[in-house]
Structure formats: structure tokens, C-alpha cells
């Protein structure tokens, strides 16, 4: 019974993760049509699916192997798409995410994926625990997206937004350094730290 659950795709958490992936094109269409308020609502709904899929997986013991891949893939697809489109001045007014921040955020994610592939190939490492710095960085990044969407929807450009961008930059760089350190340590010891 437990083995079946671990391989079962048809669970509430997996449905919510799949829904989050399906909301990405809806979010993008809203941005391209410059319907910022609706884009904000879609992003909030997608965020709620992220909250509930993890909650349901724990409460109903519906953690699956596919869910372990689907959930972070849905998160990254949504966040990366949001960062890219919110960096384009032609689509966003009055606020845009600075290009330097988007490059660092996506660069860190690519570094993590590359590191995970290397660890899998060299030492068969399959599980990777998110760090506190990684979670803080992700929280900062989501806050940036929400703030840009919110302030664009009310056509306001607050002065503190620049501070949020720089704080997110620092958190992202620190988490990238930390994940690199953990990955190098795993390679040196040949096991998960």
C-alpha cells in the first residue's frame, strides 16, 4: 500500500503542482496583455497551490517520487518565467526587475542544477535538502515578484523597491555560495552532508 502511494501520480499534491505549471502560460498571457492585476491574482493562486501541495503531502502522507520532482519544477518554472517577463520594460510599468538581479537569480538556479547533475553522476547523490539560506533567497525572490506586480497594478513606484532588489541579490548570492560549499563537501566526502 505504501509502495503504491510513493509511485502514484494521481494525488492531490501532484494535481496542485500540475495546476501550478498550467497557470504559468496564463500568467504570461496576462503580462503580455498588460493585465497586471490579473497576473498578480494568477501568481497568488499559483502560490497558494504551492502552499497546499506541501501541506496535503504531509497531512495525507501523499509524498511521491514524481511529486518530489514536480513540485520544485513547478516552482522554478513559475519563478523563472516571472523574473524574465518582469525584467522587460516594454511589458511593465512603472517598475521592472533589474536585469542584473534576474541574471543572478537564474544563474544561481542553473548552478544548483548543474551541481546536482554532477553530484548524481559522480557519487549517485539523489536527495538534496533545501538550506535556510536557500529558503530565504526564494522568499526574497517571490517577494520581489509580488511587489513589482502589486505596485505595477496600482501604478506606483515606491523608493524602497531598490532596497528589496539589493537585499534579494545578497540573499541569492549567499545561498549560491552556500550550496556550492555543500556540494563541494559532498564530493569530498562522497556522501550527503
Summarize, please.
The protein is mainly alpha-helical and 193 residues long.
C-alpha Rg, in Å? 18 Å
The count of DSSP E runs of length 2 or more, i.e. the number of strands, is: 0
Describe the oligomeric state of these chains in a short phrase.
single chain
Mass-distribution shape: globular
What does this structure look like?
The protein is an all-alpha fold. The chain folds into 2 domains: 1-85, no CATH class; 94-193. It has helices spanning 2-7, 12-32, 36-59, 65-85, 99-123, 132-153, 161-189. α2 runs parallel beside α4, α3 packs antiparallel against α6 (132-153) and α6 packs antiparallel against α7 (161-189). The longest helix is centred in the C-terminal third of the chain and has 29 residues, at 161-189.
How is the secondary structure organized here?
Layout (H helix, E strand, L loop, with lengths): L1 H6 L4 H21 L3 H24 L5 H21 L13 H25 L8 H22 L7 H29 L4
Helix pairs in contact: 2-3, 2-4, 3-6, 4-5, 5-7, 6-7
List its traits.
single chain, 193 residues, mainly alpha, 2 domains, 77% helix, globular
Amino acid at each position: 500500500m505504501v509502495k503504491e502511494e510513493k509511485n502514484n501520480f494521481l494525488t492531490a499534491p501532484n494535481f496542485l503542482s500540475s495546476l501550478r505549471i498550467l497557470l504559468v502560460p496564463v500568467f504570461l498571457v496576462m503580462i503580455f496583455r498588460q493585465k497586471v492585476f490579473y497576473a498578480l491574482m494568477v501568481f497568488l493562486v499559483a502560490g497558494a497551490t504551492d502552499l497546499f501541495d506541501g501541506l496535503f503531502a504531509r497531512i495525507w502522507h501523499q509524498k511521491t517520487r514524481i511529486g518530489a520532482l514536480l513540485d520544485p519544477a513547478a516552482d522554478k518554472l513559475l519563478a523563472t518565467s516571472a523574473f524574465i517577463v518582469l525584467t522587460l520594460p516594454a511589458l511593465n510599468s512603472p517598475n521592472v526587475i533589474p536585469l542584473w538581479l534576474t541574471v543572478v537569480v537564474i544563474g544561481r538556479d542553473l548552478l544548483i542544477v548543474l551541481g546536482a547533475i554532477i553530484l548524481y553522476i559522480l557519487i549517485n547523490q539523489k536527495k538534496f535538502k533545501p538550506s535556510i539560506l536557500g529558503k530565504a533567497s526564494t522568499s526574497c525572490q517571490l517577494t520581489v515578484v509580488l511587489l513589482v506586480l502589486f505596485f505595477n497594478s496600482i501604478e506606483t513606484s515606491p523608493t524602497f523597491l531598490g532596497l528589496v532588489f539589493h537585499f534579494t541579490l545578497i540573499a541569492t548570492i549567499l545561498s549560491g555560495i552556500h550550496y556550492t560549499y555543500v556540494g563541494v563537501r559532498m564530493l569530498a566526502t562522497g556522501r550527503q552532508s
